[in-house]
Design a protein that fits this description.
InterPro entries: CBS_dom (IPR000644), CBS_dom_sf (IPR046342), CBSX3_CBS_dom (IPR044725), Diverse_CBS-Domain (IPR051257). Residues 79-134 form the CBS domain. This is CBS domain-containing protein. Pfam families: CBS. By secondary structure, the chain is α+β, with helices and mostly antiparallel strands. The protein has one domain: Roll (CBS-domain), CATH 3.10.580. The protein has helices at residues 3-10, 23-31, 56-66, 75-78, 92-102, 121-145, and strands at residues 16-17, 38-41, 52-55, 106-111, 114-120. The strands form 2 sheets. The chain has a 3-stranded mixed sheet. Strands 4-5 form a two-stranded antiparallel ribbon. The longest helix is centred in the last third of the chain and has 25 residues, at 121-145. The chain starts with a helix and ends with a helix.
């Protein structure tokens, strides 16, 4: 299975934010509706370029260190600038490896230097579990047919 298979099922909608938006504005977008785990920062106006990413965790951690001072911060002050991405052609196992290695819960999907989707660890685990159930069913059928 490939990352593109996940995007085919969940869609390619990506919620973005501008780097100059305030942190409270980003927090409101994350809170929803819909409730989101992360926003891709894209300042190009076309939601194609990935300039950064900001997650719920980023906001909470900054709140813990800055307290009420977060009200004066922008997304640029908090976002992760060096974003780990994947491609639609990457395997789900490779995406899981990136998420595990870098301890990220969200990966922007980039193709030809353009943002084409966003996958979460939940999307990856759900797809991998479905694969494993299919594999177990096939093995069970093979075993039972040999009787």
């Amino acid at each position: 299975m490939k990352v593109a298979d996940i995007l085919r099922i969940k869609g390619d909608t990506v919620h973005t934010v501008l780097s100059w938006n305030t942190l409270p504005e980003a927090a409101a977008r994350l809170a929803g509706p819909p409730s989101l785990g992360a926003l891709v920062v894209s300042d190009d106006g076309f939601r194609e370029r990935v300039d950064g990413i900001i997650s719920e965790r980023d906001v909470v951690r900054r709140l813990a260190t800055d307290g009420a001072g977060v009200m004066n911060l922008t997304v640029a002050d908090v976002m992760t600038r060096h974003v780990v991405t994947c491609a639609p052609t990457d395997s789900i196992e490779d995406a899981m490896g990136l998420m595990n290695r870098w301890r990220h819960r969200h990966l922007p999907v980039v193709e030809d230097h353009k943002l084409v989707g966003l996958i979460s660890i939940g999307d990856v685990v759900k797809r991998r579990l479905a694969e494993m159930q299919t594999e177990a069913g096939v093995l069970r059928d093979i075993y039972l047919s040999g009787r």
